[in-house]
Write a structure and sequence with these properties.
The structure is a single chain. This protein has 261 residues and is α/β, with parallel strands linked by helices. The chain folds into 2 domains: 229 residues, Survival protein SurE-like phosphatase/nucleotidase (Stationary-phase Survival Protein Sure Homolog, Chain: A, 3-Layer(aba) Sandwich); 28 residues, no CATH class. 24% of the residues lie in helices and 25% in strands. It has 6 helices and 13 strands. The two termini are 40 Å apart.
């Protein structure tokens, strides 16, 4: 299997290094293309206002001064001769559960891989210690990954408890939980007395009930959540169609296709 690895914590991150070392024991070819610095929270952003500068490090990893999405896009473009069978994003330093997936560069890297036609998974450790546990799970998961036929536009979001491998209780198929909104921006003064603001940490859990990724990881289980990048809310189409009928006269426009598929 040919793998493209990326992340959002940066090309020198421990999680990426541990993952590459473990998978290289079993896999035929691994290419690593990752940001040159921590790009956590970059989501699906692309760098469109300047050219990118790839560099190759002494360990063979490729570094790009861009976002995780940039890295996967360029990694699959032929620039690094990576005709990957699978994109693996991670291992992220910290969980990506619930609303985190909207901001996560790790999840975005996997999303870009799937958008470009390559099956992709995002892997995160709910902590910063037992990266070897997450890497071992990914290695074992990939032994039979070719038999998994996910719909187009789907990725797997995997969150691993920060525990030794033998302490993991099992695997749970989960849904995304929800977080409370983050707090207000945190004011700080720079050395010249100018007011600056930190974006605060993510909010606490609002929905961590049974079946969620939060609940699984807290109980010591690996959470696997299938995500789909089609954001169309099909369940509201009929409600919207009915509403458009009522407003079409006010807008003096004819609302076409007023029945949901």
């Amino acid at each position: 299997m040919k793998l493209l690895l990326s992340n959002d914590d940066g090309v020198r991150a421990e999680g990426l290094r541990v993952l590459a070392q473990r998978l290289s024991q079993d896999m035929a070819k691994i290419t690593v293309v990752a940001p040159d610095r921590d790009r956590s929270g970059a989501s699906n952003s692309l760098t469109l206002t300047r050219p990118l500068c790839p560099e190759t490090l002494d360990n063979g990893f490729h570094s790009i001064d861009g976002t995780p999405t940039d890295c996967v896009y360029m990694g699959l473009s032929g620039l690094f001769q990576s005709d990957a069978d699978l994109v693996v994003a991670g291992i992220n330093h910290g969980a990506n559960m619930g609303d985190d997936v909207l901001y996560s560069g790790t999840v975005a890297a996997a999303t870009e891989g799937r958008f470009l036609g390559v099956p992709s998974i995002a892997v995160s450790l709910a902590g910063k210690t037992h990266f070897a546990t997450a890497a071992e799970f990914v290695a074992r998961l990939l032994t039979d990954y070719r038999s998994l036929d996910l719909p187009a536009g789907s990725i797997l979001n995997i969150n691993v408890p920060d525990l030794p491998y033998n302490a993991i209780k099992g695997i749970r198929l989960t849904r995304l939980g929800q977080r409370h909104p983050a707090g207000d921006p945190v004011p700080v003064l720079d050395p010249r007395g100018k007011q600056r603001y930190w974006i605060p940490a993510a909010g606490g859990t609002r929905d961590a009930g049974e079946g969620t990724d939060f609940d699984a990881v807290a109980a010591g289980y690996i959470s696997i959540t299938p995500l789909h990048v089609d954001l169309t809310q099909n369940g509201t189409k009929q409600t919207l169609a009915n509403w458009l009928v009522s407003v079409s006269s006010a807008t003096e426009l004819v609302a076409e296709k007023l029945t949901a598929d």
